[in-house]
Predict the structure.
Amino acid sequence: MAEEIKQTGQVITVCSGKGGVGKTLLAVNLAVSLSKKNADVALIDGEFQFGDVGLAMDLQPSFTMKDIVEE
């Protein structure tokens, strides 16, 4: 009998009480590094109004939280 192996996910949070300390840079580099190690990664920018993850990764989002709220 083959034993099933359960894998659980992990949440890594990058936060600071002050702006301009490099949270976005750290989060983006961490996500890219984990992805290069073949880990499944979801990078979520919790700063809905002024989030910069898309800019840091040179990505144009297909939808934003604003689009979801308006729906």
Observations:
- Residues 26 and 66 are 25 Å apart (CA to CA).
- The longest helix spans residues 23-36.
